[in-house]
Specification:
Layout: E1 6-7, H1 21-26, H2 34-37, E2 42-43, E3 49-50, H3 52-55, H4 57-68, E4 73-77, E5 86-92, E6 95-103, E7 106-111, E8 126-127, E9 130-132, E10 139-141, E11 146-148, E12 170-173, E13 176-179, H5 188-199, E14 209-218, H6 222-227, H7 235-238, E15 252-255, E16 259-264, H8 279-286, H9 304-320, H10 329-333, E17 335-340, E18 344-346, E19 353-360, E20 363-375, E21 387-389, H11 396-400, H12 402-423, E22 428-429, H13 437-459
Helix pairs in contact: 4-13
Length: 460
C-alpha cells in the first residue's frame, strides 16, 4: 500500500446505478445534519494487499511491536469503572494493562505486571484499595506509588521513586477510555479530531449506557474479522435476506486520517435486484417478519424510509425526549459505521452499535469480535451490562436477535477466508477501488505505523 491517497471527485468517479446516498438525503422529511453531507472519497490505488498480512507470524509480530504497542486504542467505558478503586483489565496481542479510577475524574493505566518478578497484578476486573502482587506481596497504591515491600530489609537497593508503576497515556472521548502503550505517542486530541468533530454536538455517546456486551472468538486473523464489517459489497452474496431493504452497493464511503465510515442506506433496496420490490416486501424484510405476520400499512405517499423513521421516533421519544422529532430519517434508519483506526467501530446517530476486533491473545489466526449495544436511558444511569462470551457452538442470533443473524453469516465466512488465504497460490488480496476503500484505508494506515515504527527502531 505505497500509493499516496488522493481525494476523489464524487461527481466524476465511477459509482453504482441507482439513487446516490446524497440524493436520498434530499428526500428526507427532516433537516439533514451537516455531518451526513460531508463527502471524502479517497483513492488508494488498485494494488493488491499482501496475503502475508493475514497469514504470516512474522507480520503479526511486527503488528504487536509497531502497532499495538504504539497506537491509541479503546479499552472500556467510563461507566465500567465508576468508583475509586474500580479497575478494568485490558488485554491486547499478548499484553495486559490495568485501567483504574484513582479518584473522582481521574483515571490512570499501568502495565499489568509486578515490578519485582513480573507476575500479573490482576487476572480479572474488580475493585481494590491497592494493587498487591499475589506472588510475594509487593504492593502499590492506586496512584502507582510503591506502598509495601515485604521483608524490606533485604531490598535496600529498591528506591521508592524509581519503583512507581509505569504510567501509560490515558484519554477519554464519548464515554470511552483510551490508552496508548507508547509513552511518547502523538497527542490524543490530534488522533481523535476527525471523528470527534463529527460526533460532538449531535451524537453524544457519553449520554448512553451499555445495554449489552457480547463477544466471541473466530478462527481468522483480526483483520479478516474486522474487514467483514468495513464494506457492504458482500451483502449480495452473504446477506441476501436484507437486499430488499438495504442499498448495499449505493453505500457512501468516506475516509479521513484516523477514521473512516461507510454509510449504507436503509429503507431502500439494492440496485442488484432484478425487480423493484413493493413497499410491503421492503418493510417485511426490514422488520424480519415471519410468513403470516401482519405487515404494517404504510400511509399513501409515505416512503419506507420515512415510515421506519417515524416508528423509531416514537420508540425513542421517551428516553431521548422531544428533540427526537427533529432527527432526520437518515439518522434513524441508515447504517453509519465509523471506524477509528485500528479496530474501534462506533456507529453514528441512533443506531448505537459499537464493534471492537482484537487478536485472540498471541494467535495470528484467531480473533475476538465484540458487539456493544449502547442505549439512551431515563433517570439514573443503569449499571453496565456484563460481557457475555459465546461458546463456539452458540450463535449470535440467540444472543442479540436479528442483528445476530447477520453476524452468524459473517462468522460462517471468516474461517473459510483464513483457510483460503493459507491455500491460495495468489500473492495478494484484490479489492474494489471504491466500495472496499475503507479496507484499503485500514491497510494504508497499518503500513504507515509499521514503516514508521521500524524506522524509529532502526535509528536507535
Amino acid at each position: 500500500m505505497k500509493t499516496k491517497p488522493a481525494l476523489r471527485d464524487p461527481k466524476t468517479m465511477a459509482r453504482s446505478p441507482g439513487i446516490t446516498y446524497q440524493q436520498l438525503l434530499d428526500e428526507d422529511t427532516q433537516t439533514v445534519p451537516d455531518v451526513l453531507r460531508l463527502e471524502s472519497p479517497m483513492d488508494f490505488g488498485n494494488e493488491d494487499i499482501s496475503i502475508e498480512r493475514y497469514t504470516s507470524r512474522e507480520w503479526f509480530d511486527r503488528e504487536v511491536e509497531f502497532l499495538w504497542q504504539r497506537v491509541w486504542q479503546y479499552t472500556c467505558r467510563e461507566e465500567e469503572i465508576p468508583e475509586t478503586g474500580d479497575y478494568y483489565k485490558y488485554d491486547i496481542a499478548g499484553q495486559s494493562f490495568l485501567v483504574v479510577r484513582t479518584g473522582p475524574g481521574e483515571i490512570k493505566a499501568y502495565p499489568n505486571a509486578c515490578l519485582h518478578r513480573g507476575r500479573m497484578l490482576k487476572e480479572y476486573d474488580g475493585r481494590v484499595s491497592d494493587f498487591r502482587c499475589a506472588f510475594h506481596g509487593f504492593c502499590w497504591s492506586l496512584d502507582g506509588k510503591l506502598k509495601d515491600v515485604p521483608a524490606r530489609w533485604d531490598f535496600q537497593h529498591v528506591e521508592d521513586e524509581k519503583w512507581k508503576l509505569p504510567e501509560l497515556p490515558v484519554a477519554t472521548w464519548g464515554g470511552f477510555i483510551f490508552i496508548n502503550p507508547d509513552q511518547e505517542c502523538e497527542p490524543f486530541e490530534e488522533f481523535i479530531e476527525d471523528i470527534k468533530s463529527q460526533f460532538e454536538g449531535r451524537w453524544p455517546l457519553e449520554k448512553l449506557h451499555i445495554a449489552s456486551h457480547t463477544a466471541k472468538t473466530v478462527d481468522a486473523n483480526w483483520k479478516i474479522a474486522q474487514e467483514a464489517f468495513c464494506e457492504a459489497y458482500h451483502v449480495n452474496a452473504t446477506h441476501p435476506q436484507i437486499l430488499m431493504s438495504l442499498g448495499d452497493t449505493n453505500s457512501q464511503v468516506d475516509v479521513w486520517r484516523n477514521c473512516a465510515r461507510v454509510i449504507t442506506p436503509g429503507g431502500t433496496f439494492s440496485p442488484l435486484l432484478d425487480e423493484q420490490p413493493t413497499k410491503e416486501q421492503m418493510i417485511s424484510y426490514a422488520m424480519d417478519l415471519r410468513e403470516g405476520e401482519p405487515i404494517p400499512e404504510i400511509p399513501e405517499g409515505m416512503t419506507v424510509r420515512a415510515f421506519r423513521a417515524a416508528g423509531m421516533r416514537a420508540a425513542l421519544r421517551g428516553p431521548v425526549g422531544p428533540s427526537i422529532d427533529e432527527c432526520s430519517d437518515a439518522e434513524l434508519v441508515d447504517s453509519i459505521d465509523y471506524t477509528v483506526f485500528p479496530n474501534f467501530h462506533p456507529w453514528g446517530a441512533y443506531n448505537q452499535i459499537v464493534y471492537r476486533f482484537r487478536p485472540n491473545g498471541n494467535d495470528h489466526r484467531s480473533a475476538i469480535m465484540e458487539c456493544i449495544m449502547l442505549a439512551p436511558f431515563e433517570g439514573e444511569r443503569p449499571p453496565p451490562a456484563q460481557i457475555q462470551w459465546l461458546a463456539e457452538d452458540e450463535s449470535w442470533s440467540e444472543a442479540i436477535g436479528f442483528l445476530g443473524k447477520v453476524f452468524d453469516q459473517d462468522f460462517f465466512n471468516m474461517p473459510k477466508v483464513q483457510q483460503g488465504l493459507e491455500s491460495t497460490y495468489k500473492s495478494g488480496v484484490t479489492l474494489a477501488s471504491y466500495q472496499e476503500s475503507k479496507v484499503r484505508w485500514l491497510h494504508h494506515r497499518l503500513g504507515e505505523f509499521i514503516e514508521e515504527g521500524e524506522k524509529k527502531a532502526g535509528a536507535k
